[in-house]
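A.,

Following up on our hallway conversation. C-alpha cells first:
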C-alpha cells in the first residue's frame, strides 16, 4: 500500500501496522526490505498516535463543555 499515512483513517493504519508487524515477525524479508517495512510501520504508528491524540483532545473538550 503506497497511500500516505495522513490519508488513512486510524482503523486502516492499525490494520496496516498489524500486517507490517506480521511480515517482520515472519523473519523472511531481506534486510533492506525489512528496514523499509519497519520505517513504514514507524510512520504508520506515528500517524495513528497523532490521530488518537487529536480524538482524545476532542473528547476532553466535549466533556469539559458539558460539565
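Then the amino acids I'd put at each of the 67 positions:
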Amino acid at each position: 500500500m503506497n497511500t500516505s499515512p495522513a490519508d488513512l483513517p486510524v482503523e486502516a493504519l492499525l490494520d496496516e501496522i498489524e500486517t507490517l508487524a506480521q511480515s517482520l515477525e515472519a523473519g523472511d524479508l531481506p534486510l533492506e526490505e525489512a528496514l523499509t517495512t519497519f520505517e513504514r510501520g514507524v510512520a504508520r504508528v506515528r500517524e495513528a498516535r497523532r490521530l488518537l491524540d487529536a480524538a482524545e483532545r476532542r473528547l476532553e473538550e466535549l466533556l469539559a463543555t458539558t460539565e
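Helices lie at 10-26, 31-66. Curious whether your intuition agrees with the design.

B.
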